[in-house]
């Protein structure tokens, strides 16, 4: 069965995120270099680390077959990193754009949610796909009530990019959840469509953070 799964895995599986790993690393270095305070450096470092973990682990997991034990470990890490990138993305936005009290509230909310999500995916790896996909979406939109403040301090462009990125992440989650469309299963299947959406969403959110930082 494992051999059959390897044959059926699309040949592009993992390559998109493998290509994004060095770009996310370089982008993180740029953000950290542009940071104007110690808090901004720490926030952008957390974001950069979460992005590198997401793309690096995903590429490692999807590029080959690791056997039952390796697959179980890497799948847990891969799914847990989705919660970390959500919290990681909100961290520089909160630090750069929010006053002290709302900043603490938002960071506490998203990182507590991420910690719960990581524990959920680590301990219940066979949870229904629809359930953990819904958890990703809910946490991803957790800061929707802060958009007016982001608009006031960061500008309309930042908020538009955040919303576009959120919609792209949500569309990717839906593709992942329903496994459709599956355009070319041998080369570029539904999972590759999902990864394409995550990359586009990441670029939108990275641009928003870059604007906020500068």
Describe the protein in words.
The chain is 81% helix and 0% strand. The chain is mainly α and 214 residues long. Helix 2 packs antiparallel against helix 3, helix 7 crosses helix 8 and helix 8 runs antiparallel to helix 9.
Q: Measured on Cα atoms, how large is the radius of gyration?
A: 17 Å
Compute the average pLDDT.
Answer: 94
**N- to C-terminal distance:** 52 Å
Helix content: over 70%
Count every beta strand, where a strand is a DSSP E run of 2 or more residues.
0
Shape type: globular
- The string of secondary-structure elements, in order, is HHHHHHHHH
How many distinct helices? 9
The amount of beta strand, in percent, is under 5%
Sheet bearing the most strands, described? none
Structural class, please?
A: mainly alpha
Low-confidence stretches: 1-7
Give a quick precis of the structure.
The protein is mainly alpha-helical and 214 residues long.
Notable characteristics:
214 residues; mainly alpha; 0% strand; disordered N terminus
How is the secondary structure organized here?
Blueprint: H1 2-8, H2 15-34, H3 38-62, H4 67-97, H5 100-123, H6 129-140, H7 147-154, H8 156-178, H9 190-213
Helix pairs in contact: 2-3, 2-9, 3-4, 4-5, 4-9, 5-6, 6-8, 7-8, 8-9
């Amino acid at each position: 069965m494992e051999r059959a799964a390897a044959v059926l895995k699309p040949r592009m599986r993992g390559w998109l995120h493998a290509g994004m790993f060095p770009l996310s690393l370089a982008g993180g270095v740029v953000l950290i270099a542009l940071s104007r305070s110690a808090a901004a450096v720490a926030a952008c470092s957390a974001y950069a680390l979460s992005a590198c973990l997401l793309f690096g682990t995903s590429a490692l997991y999807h590029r080959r077959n690791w056997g039952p034990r390796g697959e179980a470990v890497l799948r847990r890490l891969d799914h847990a990193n989705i919660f970390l990138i959500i919290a990681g993305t909100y961290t520089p936005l909160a630090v750069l754009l929010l006053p002290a009290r709302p900043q603490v509230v938002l960071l506490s909310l998203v990182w507590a949610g991420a910690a719960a999500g990581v524990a959920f995916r680590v301990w219940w790896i066979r949870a229904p796909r629809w359930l953990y996909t819904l958890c990703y979406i809910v946490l991803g939109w957790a800061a929707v009530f802060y958009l007016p403040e982001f608009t006031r301090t960061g500008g309309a462009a930042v908020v538009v990019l955040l919303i576009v990125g959120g919609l792209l992440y949500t569309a990717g989650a839906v593709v992942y959840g329903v496994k459709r469309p599956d355009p070319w299963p041998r080369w570029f299947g539904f999972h590759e469509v999902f990864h394409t959406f995550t990359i586009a969403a990441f670029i939108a959110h990275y641009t928003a953070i870059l604007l906020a930082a500068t």
